[in-house]
């Protein structure tokens, strides 16, 4: 008589702290998938079911909706029982995902004369100024004057504006890194800017720090949090309680900035 299989464990999907957008991991080639529906309370929910080699039922809520991964041997009724068990969490995450997509759509940058984008947490306005010889930043009017003709393409405007933002990012991030490195008693060997699609920052054991230049869009408190987070990894290369205590030693209310970062919706373009 075959041994009885253990009941599957329920697992919540957890996004990495520095994910810009939730991602759904591509299925393995040949992995069976199906589209199904069920009622959670008064809501009819569609979901994608993927059968995979695993020991538990997993849930992911991303831009494409709900995806469920389950072992091949688990029957549908048990999967649906698990879905009902996690129904409140699933509905909450679906609402959060829909609201996030709406914020992303609303925050898309239009690269044109008069276009607006965030810079250090506040909006700036792009102005085409063919009479200028270089990019000019007017901090009073918060206008970024670009030496481009009125008929400049979106690509020209984007490339020039982003080049300016990247230069400002390096100027802004370096003193922040030096400040928090001194507070934490660590040595930062090198600062590099990244254009990563899914991470705001990273740290290496050799003392190298990478920060996504698009952090320049955010308010200074959020930038400080990411900087302190990465530098704290030079003392604790993990996310243990000791690591979070290290971050808290220089940013006592870091949770506020961490939560704000998770809610931000700067579109990577």
UniProtKB/TrEMBL annotation:
The keyword Hydrolase applies. It comes from Roseateles saccharophilus. PANTHER family: UNCHARACTERIZED PROTEIN YGJP (PTHR30399), UTP PYROPHOSPHATASE (PTHR30399:SF1). Keywords: Hydrolase. The keyword Kinase does not apply. Residues 56-263 form the YgjP-like metallopeptidase domain. This is Metal-dependent hydrolase. GO terms for molecular function: hydrolase activity.
């Amino acid at each position: 008589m075959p041994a009885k299989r253990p009941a599957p464990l329920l697992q919540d999907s957890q996004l990495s702290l520095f994910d810009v957008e939730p991602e759904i991991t591509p299925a393995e080639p040949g992995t069976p998938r199906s589209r199904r529906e069920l009622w959670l309370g008064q809501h009819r929910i569609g979901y994608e079911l993927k059968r995979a080699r695993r020991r538990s039922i997993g849930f992911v809520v991303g831009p494409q909706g709900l995806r469920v991964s389950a072992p091949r041997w688990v029957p549908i009724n048990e999967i649906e029982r698990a879905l009902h068990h996690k129904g409140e969490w699933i509905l909450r995450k679906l609402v959060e995902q829909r609201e996030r997509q709406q914020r992303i759509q609303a925050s898309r940058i239009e690269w044109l004369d008069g276009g607006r984008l965030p810079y250090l947490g506040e909006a700036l306005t792009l102005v085409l100024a063919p009479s200028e010889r270089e990019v000019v930043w007017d901090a009073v009017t918060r206008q970024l004057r670009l030496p481009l003709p009125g008929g400049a393409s979106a690509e020209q405007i984007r490339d020039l504006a982003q080049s300016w933002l990247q230069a400002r990012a390096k100027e802004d991030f370096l003193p922040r890194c030096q400040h928090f490195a001194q507070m934490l008693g660590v040595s930062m060997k090198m600062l590099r800017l990244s254009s990563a699609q899914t991470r705001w920052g990273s740290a290496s054991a050799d003392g190298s720090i990478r920060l996504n230049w698009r952090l320049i869009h955010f308010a200074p408190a959020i930038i400080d949090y990411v900087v302190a987070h990465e530098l704290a990894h030079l003392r604790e290369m993990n996310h243990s309680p000791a690591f979070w205590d290290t971050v808290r030693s220089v940013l006592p209310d870091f949770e506020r900035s961490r939560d704000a970062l998770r809610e931000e919706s700067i579109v990577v373009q």
